[in-house]
Amino acid sequence: MPQPSADLREASPDEAANGERLDRWMAQVWNDLSRSRCKALVEGGALSVDGEGLTDPSAKVRAGAVYRLDVPPPEPAEPEAENIALEVLFEDDDLIVINKAAGMTVHPGAGNWTGTLVNALLHHCKGSLSGIGGVERPGIVHRLDKDTSGVMVVAKSDAAHQGLSAKFAAHDIERAYLACVRGAPKPREGRLETRLARSSHDRKKFAVVADPASKAGRHAVTNYRTLQTYGQAPGKSVGTPLASLVECRLETGRTHQIRIHMAHLSAPLLGDPLYGKGRSAPLAKLDDGKLFNDFRRQALHAAILGFEHPLTGELLRFETEPPKDMQRLIGFLETL
Q1: Do 222 and 238 form a contact (C-beta atoms < 8 A)?
Q2: Which is catalytic among the residues 23, 70, 94, 145?
């Protein structure tokens, strides 16, 4: 059992605070912590109430209950510049577009304080960052999972950061992904609109909220179409493929959105360690050259990113092919 940190705090709300949102109350009680910091601590399991763990920052405060917060020691305040090679697709004074390699984490965090995209950009853009919120740093306006490859845009100036953030918030961005999935989504083409919330069974995962009337989680919309199907699934009706290549176009950009939505449609991404429910035995048996068995990440590539430059108004659109490992996987699927 982990030992508590030196910064262990305790508070008990009075009647006036009863029913208040938890993270808001915490930021008032422990005013050296921002509300976003309080939210992150709660979601990370650092809070207990009357001895029971609580991980919902939107929970209502209970008057008279004893809340204990175990604040971990601070991590390094600022990431350091690192000379890491980047594939740059476009760059001007206000933004940079890159083709992110699979395996690269976007932002420093627990377990990944070095080797990230931010570390690489601090080196690459040194002297050309005009300041995001008064600090010389790249402005991350959207993210790709560590093991997802593809096109990303990052702000270099405060004005570009605000403009791009507004475009993403308004869903005024073209984003298309290529995914290799097990089987095929049902139906083969459509628009999936759900709410996504953190799983109650696994804090690393998110899940589709079962109740369509619920306001829990966040609204998520994926438009998808099956581009190609491969093979015949053993023991299934004729026309049931072993795998498929699917294009997903996002209206929203929630954490793990495509991975969750494809799994929800009974077509989890090949290689997905969280939502794939293990490797596909029929595909593994057919692979005698290790093109499938050696693929060790979710088969997802951000292929297209299009938007209007927030300062110049120029229409920008970038399209990249999947990296070599995913191309080899697709080549194997085409032999089925």
Answers
A1: no
A2: 145
